Amino acid sequence: MHFSIPETESRSGDSGGSAYVAYNIHVNGVLHCRVRYSQLLGLHEQLRKEYGANVLPAFPPKKLFSLTPAEVEQRREQLEKYMQAVRQDPLLGSSETFNSFLRRAQQETQQVPTEEVSLEVLLSNGQKVLVNVLTSDQTEDVLEAVAAKLDLPDDLIGYFSLFLVREREDGTFSFVRKLQEFELPYVSVTSLRSQEYKIVLRKSYWDSAYDDDVMENRVGLNLLYAQTVSDIERGWILVTKEQHRQLKSLQEKVSKKEFLRLAQTLRHYGYLRFDACVADFPEKDCPVVVSAGNSELSLQLRLPGQQLREGSFRVTRMRCWRVTSSVPLPSGGTSSPGRGRGEVRLELAFEYLMSKDRLQWVTITSPQAIMMSICLQSMVDELMVKKSGGSIRKMLRRRVGGTLIRSDSQQAVKSPPLLESPDASRESMVKLSSKLSAVSLRGIGSPSTDASASDVHGNFAFEGIGDEDL
């Protein structure tokens, strides 16, 4: 998750008090909250009490006198680095102290009072699920409420997540981000002040082997089935005419498990597809469509005069990756600190092991670069859990102060309509690369000098290539 403090504001104090500088904290380029230096200092002191000074990154010191504009900008940069470092620390970033601070600040900034509201959550097939929640409920609370409404068992809640999406005019979704523990879903979606933003429930794992756990339960089976039918309809899962005929036959028979077993064999089953963007592979400014799934990033592309092709980049071959943002300067080439900034340009770059002794950086320029990075991290986390013999099955903690009250009227997942005939305009793809299998596990060394260590995500699922793989 990308934290930034791109700007400051001069604001008047309460009841006509003296003016103060406010720092706008953005998450994935969107304003999350507005805080004062004293609030961030209070967070730092609380974290220091709980975890010790040696664990925390450096915090910008207090100043006795009013800050000059240059000092305000310097403090902004220091606070931005501090927030990024805390968030990226596995201990501090997952702490309740840090996350509750951001939730309170989000609610205060958006001036949303705590009250009961009805929140709409969509399933992958567009079906609406209305849940009664508090405006101050965190992501986990809302997820539990949706699970209760659908009658999804507690031990399967961890297999699903809530995603913020933007609904296009044609009804398809563009994924913005996975909702996190530091935000309030109701506030996050309503603060965008646009009806095109929605919250969607979707499975949160990548390895189709976990489907077996979900399919044991009726509701889990229906959710997985509805998502798969939807993915096929929107062209995310690649099917031939014969495969489509078989799937439609199974759907007519309401053979959901058999339908899913066949779907699991199809290319891009369970993948998340992103909007069209640009990459520098295999050549500069190459238009691509990126999909994430099955421990890889897939790039669909069309070279001049050639058919549609696909390149696959395995997560286990990525030594590290980073997300960078740049802001074009306004005309004239200069900008005052924190003001006059243009639209943020986001890039995901990963260092890939192309051959046994050759690493190469591949860069994807996309507004969804941060979401791509989150997908990479979650795939790595899942691989490491599997290698350690663990399981993603988990029970989410109950709300503080009592158990979750289930609704009397359970809402079943509606069966999706029959599959339509495959789109004749969809072309088959030729894979650019299909090997590079896993061999041995090793940790990574220091990141390349192309970026600072704080910008780089080290990949502990990175593996070497044996001679037999070349």
UniProtKB/TrEMBL annotation:
Location of the PX domain: 1-109
Domain of life: Eukaryota
Classification via SMART domains: PX
PROSITE patterns: PX, RA
Any Gene Ontology biological process: receptor-mediated endocytosis
Gene Ontology MF term list: low-density lipoprotein particle receptor binding; phosphatidylinositol binding
Assembly and binders: Monomer. Interacts with APP (via cytoplasmic YXNPXY motif). Interacts with KIF1B. Interacts with the C-termini of P-selectin, PTC, LDLR, VLDLR, LRP1 and LRP8. Interacts with KRIT1 (via N-terminus). Interacts with HRAS. Interacts with ITGB1 and ITGB5 (via NPxY motif). Interacts with CCDC22 and CCDC93; the interaction associates SNX17 with the CCC complex. Interacts (via C-terminus) with VPS26C and VPS35L; the interactions are direct and associate SNX17 with the retriever complex.
Protein name in the entry: Sorting nexin-17
Protein source organism: Neovison vison (American mink)
Lineage per the UniProt record: Eukaryota, Metazoa, Chordata, Craniata, Vertebrata
